[in-house]
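Reopening this ticket.

The earlier resolution said the output was attached, but the attachment link was broken on my side. Pasting everything inline this time so it's all in one place.
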Amino acid sequence: MKQQIEAEHRKRMDALELLWKDFGEKSNLQGKMDFVKSPKGELTSGVQEIVKMLDSDFSVENVAEKLKISKPNLSIKRPSISTVLKRLVDEGQIQIVEVGKGRRATIYKRT
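Inline output:
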């Protein structure tokens, strides 16, 4: 049984070694993966673009759906979108129509 476990472990370690060789360099990794860390500010600029296109009130979910379509390779996290929207409120670019509570989302509109 011990030999069987060690053999399985060796197979897994060999597989990991292959992965490290194939994806070890950052340039290779970026070329072979769909989702890579986004450059700083890309989410903010993407959210701003979406907000400019929306004619009616919107929520984080609405912005996330539009971002998935317009920037499919961008890693989208709803809490990050919420943070960007809060910054836009502070800057006066958008305003809160209805504050969310519990499961109800906060509703925003352009100013």
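Reporter confirms the inline version is readable. Confidence is low (pLDDT under 50) at residues 25-36. The chain has five helices and two strands.
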